[in-house]
Write a structure and sequence with these properties.
Layout lengths: L5 E5 L5 H12 L2 E3 L22 H15 L4 E11 L7 E11 L4 E9 L12 H11 L20
Parallel strand pairs: 1-2, 1-3
Antiparallel strand pairs: 3-4, 4-5
Length: 158
């Protein structure tokens, strides 16, 4: 059903390095990416561009748009986030979704992996030592850091 078909991996962030070998081996597809397709238009992991839709809508829109842009009938896309667990209070989670769409055979499969195995954390940093301690705690450099300037609060008097 899939052997030797081209499968688009809709990603901007090198996820094909993990996804392609598995799908090529298990399905016999030939994976490719589109370097010009900007998945960040659907929102960024770090929050510079807000995600306006829920993860599944975002995932599906991303995949279908990439398929249309590449005139392709077989594609996969992912959408993930780190943050508070949706049902376990005071626990952090890694929440990952993957969609596989085959327009030729009218197949759409969505899978989700929700895990508490994460080093997700956040902290206000006031010194280089605090930054180095935090980086070591989360496993940097094997895990990245997102640094943001503190938002200034402006008070007005009425």
């Amino acid at each position: 059903m899939f052997k030797n078909r081209k499968l688009l991996i809709a990603t901007k962030h090198k996820k094909e390095s993990v996804i392609a070998p598995i799908l090529e081996k298990e399905l016999g597809v030939i994976c490719f990416t589109d370097d010009h397709f900007d998945t960040d238009q659907y929102g960024t992991f770090s929050g510079e561009i807000e995600r306006i839709n829920d993860p599944i809508t975002t995932l599906k829109n991303k995949c279908l748009s990439a398929m249309e842009q590449n005139n392709c009938d077989l594609a996969v896309s992912s959408e993930g986030s780190f943050g508070p667990h949706p049902t376990l209070f005071f626990a952090n989670a890694d929440d990952e979704f993957l969609i596989f769409i085959d327009k030729k055979n009218n197949i759409e499969i969505i899978v989700r992996e929700l895990s508490t195995s994460t080093n997700f954390s956040g902290k206000e940093i006031n010194s280089k030592n605090e930054l180095m301690d935090f980086a070591q705690k989360i496993g940097f450099p094997s895990h990245g850091l997102i640094l943001k300037k503190k938002q200034s609060i402006m008070w007005t008097k009425n």
